[in-house]
Amino acid sequence: MEDHIPTPPAPPADEKPAEDFSAKAGEPLAQGTEIAGEEAVVEGLKTVFDPEIPVNIYDLGLIYGVVIAESGGVKIDMTLTAPGCPVAGELPQWVADAVAKVEGTGEVEVTLVWEPGWSPDLMSEDAKLALGMD
User: Fold this and answer.
1) Model pTM score
2) Domain boundaries of the chain, sorted by first residue
3) CATH number of 22-130
């Protein structure tokens, strides 16, 4: 049976969710398994979309850091476009689940962080074009 992280309710728009909320997915890799590279993990991240914005979370600039351990474990720091995002409690789990599906990844931990704050400047050029912001 899988362990699921409790999903906190989204906070009011003027209030940030609790710091260091994290979500986990995946299992340790077997000895000798080839470890996924950063490009493969990024492709996994690009399969997750903010439901209110038709752009993936990676190109939106919501991913602040990805660390792939020698064991295949992946740690990700991410943020949201706004503290009151209606999927604040769900999006980190979506990200953890998506990355855990990437071949060569083991245990995945996604931590929701708020510093630095997100801004449209963090979006890729492709995201800005898709949203008509270029």
Assistant:
1) 0.82
2) 22-130
3) 3.30.300.130
Q: Are 55 and 123 in contact (CB under 8 A)?
A: yes
Radius of gyration, CA atoms only, the chain: 15
Rounded Cα distance between 102 and 50, Å, is 20
Cα–Cα distance for residue pair 40/85, rounded to 1 Å: 27
Rounded-to-integer distance, Cα 63 and Cα 76, Å: 7
Distance CA 134, CA 129 (A): 5
Determine contact, residues 40/104, Cβ cutoff 8 Å. Answer: yes
Query: Which residues, listed in sequence order, are joined to residue 49 by a DSSP beta bridge?
Result: 56
Position 23 pLDDT exceeds 90: yes
